[in-house]
Amino acid sequence: MRGNHIEADLSQQVMAFAALRLEAWLETMRGPGGYGGPVVHWWRDNLLYTGPGLDWRYEGIILGYLKLFRNTGDDRWLDKARRAGIDLLQGQLPSGNFRHSCFEANPGTGGTPHEAACDLALLRLAHVLREREDPLWETVAEAARRNLWGYILAVLWDDEARTFRNLPNDPTFVPNKAATIVEALLAWAELTGEKEVVNRYVGPSLDAIVKAQVRAPNSPLDGAIEQGIMGARASGRYFPFYIARIIPALLLGYEATGREVYQDAALRAMAFILRFRLPDGSLPQVVYRNGRMNRHPQWVAGAGDILRAMKWARRCGMDVNPEPTQLWLLRGLQLHGGIATAHGFGGMEGRRPSVCPDARDLLPVCGWADKAFRYLAGMVHGGNHLPAVQSPPEVEMDCIFRGERCLYRETATVLEIRGESGWRYQWTKGTPWAKLILCSERKRGVPCR
Length: 449
Fold this sequence. Notes:
The protein has helices at about 1-30, 55-70, 75-90, 115-130, 135-155, 175-190, 195-210, 240-255, 260-275, 305-315, 325-330, 360, 365-375, and strands spanning about 30, 35, 155-160, 165, 230, 235, 235-240, 285-290, 295, 300, 340-345, 395-400, 405-410, 415-420, 420-430, 435. The chain has a domain at about 170-330: Glycosyltransferase, CATH 1.50.10.20. The protein starts with a helix and ends in a 13-residue tail after the last strand. A hairpin with a 2-residue loop joins strand 14 (about 415-420) and strand 15. The chain is α+β, with helices and mostly antiparallel strands.
């Protein structure tokens, strides 16, 4: 038993140091207006717009800093959470929306679940600032209220269907996005004591999520939750990462209402995730209704949200071993403190990934790294004896970029990808646009923005 205890302590120390290294890398991604950088995603990539994104990256960044502050009592972490909150205040539009809140579709506004994720972060920040008697808390809470009542409840709520739309002109019900809204509304109820939102919006949203869950005890799909439902038509696609993001909302809903069906749904969802977890701790990207899987890309930094869901399930007494996924996450940590986004971008659409990683795998992205940061920050405590984290060094890694063997290079001030005849991609950190040379332009040497 003592040996296991020592190993657990060592594991926590490693993850705590990883959190501080990742925090140092996040600092290099700040520019005027907030945290920027290119974005890669399953749905699409956005390598050109690199300005601040007021999207779900702020959820993990602010909540990660608040964890550091709570666990250590060090005011510098609260100062950084406060600074990130001010980014959102300064980027809020008269409509209540946030500027550049569409992640892979930036620069755009009205992103889902991104604006609700910002609201959640703001409300948790307001709670801590109020405890500290910092008068900014009211302004922070008001910013969240303006977005929740001015956009999410006024525009996205479908009163007839009793669910949230995906987008103003897209009535699809997306359970993981609704779950983020639920977390934000429950944070509002906790901060203000107003319970009406729980009955009017939270309960119906969680009921719709439960309805979207597969109930088939003899099937490996039991517990899976649909990615999207359009009317009576379900997508037949189950994404473990997005299902993990639903679990905390279900359990918070159980705490708020006492309805055991929400707890049961959360634990069934976790059982589904564990059933499809691979021996290395990773998860497939998507499982289909017919049982077929698409493994790639497998999220690395995003595994932080899967580990968060595991932690919630363990609190309910479920036997969950997080270690394989913890190791999977830590394997993505890079020399400069950033964390790899994924494994296997080159294997999308059934292709076999090359031995050399795709550049999109290596590229750390604020909106994925924040998920690792929030989880890892929970491992840092006042009693941790950790060495000082130095400024991030330069890293160079071989990669494949758009079919060409290249060198990925990142420093505290620049990120670039170089081929045999020169650079293919170049971003000076802090600037709103990167430069990209397309295949058809290589001969002419014309940079495209």
